[in-house]
Design brief:
This protein has about 220 residues and is an alpha/beta fold. It has helices at about 10-20, 55-60, 80-90, and strands at about 1-5, 25-35, 45, 45-50, 65-70, 95-100, 105, 110, 115, 120, 125-130, 135, 140, 145, 150, 155-160, 165, 170, 175, 180, 185-190, 195, 205. The structure holds coenzyme A (COA).
Length: about 220
Amino acid sequence: MKKIVVFGDTTFAGIVAEYINSTEFACVVAFTVNSSFIKNRTLFEGFPLVPFEEIEQQYNPNDYKMLIAISAASGIKHLNSIKFYEAKKKGYQLFSFVHPTAFIANSATIGENVIIFPHAIVEPRAKIGNGVFVRSAGYISHETEIGAFSYVAPRAAFSGKIKTGDHCFFGTNSTIRDNIIIGNDVIVGAGATVLNSLPNETILKAAECKIIPIDRFKLKL
Ligand SMILES: CC(C)(COP(=O)(O)OP(=O)(O)OC[C@H]1O[C@@H](n2cnc3c(N)ncnc32)[C@H](O)[C@@H]1OP(=O)(O)O)[C@@H](O)C(=O)NCCC(=O)NCCS
């Protein structure tokens, strides 16, 4: 059984830990964040919460792996990759977690510190970069490459042969058409449809549905 220290103390980190602890091949033993974020706490989700600055003294990198679980909502630019390299410098191997209900094709490749949530699908020859999170039912079609530290929200769907840059965010139920190239640091909003390649740092927001201002029971369905 692999023993994991999770970097993070948010809802996202708690969800990831619950999924890991529901398996028989890995378990979370502690959480860590920088000391300035500890604020007199000693526990998170019932597990020890340890300052990152001293984590290697309590959890030896030879015996424990680390998983950086910082969600896309962290306002600090590229925080997950910064912590990824700091953890490596301390001597930790980064753990990748694939939920047992996810499907990963044999010819797909998965980087370090990747999290694949329940019922996600990664098709043949797809490449998932370091630090990528694919949330529940995310769909990564054949030969698509998801750049490092990108976040694929629930049910986001990528057609084939797409290449994305690093540090991108794809919102819930977004749809990305085949054969396009997406730059670095792109945000695709929930429900948005992407039909063309996008340059670095583009933000796309989906059009909202219209509110019809009449009595709900006067409308024929
Ligand atoms: C794309 C997305 C991030 C946009 O966010 P939003 O809050 O709806 O965007 P808004 O239209 O309110 O604009 C955001 C900001 O940009 C500013 N803005 C919008 N249009 C602008 C313009 N033309 N010029 C300058 N500023 C503009 C707004 O004023 C606002 O600024 P503020 O935060 O200081 O008030 C959001 O719609 C989305 O899809 N989020 C992802 C949800 C999701 O999938 N979560 C998954 C979790 S697992």
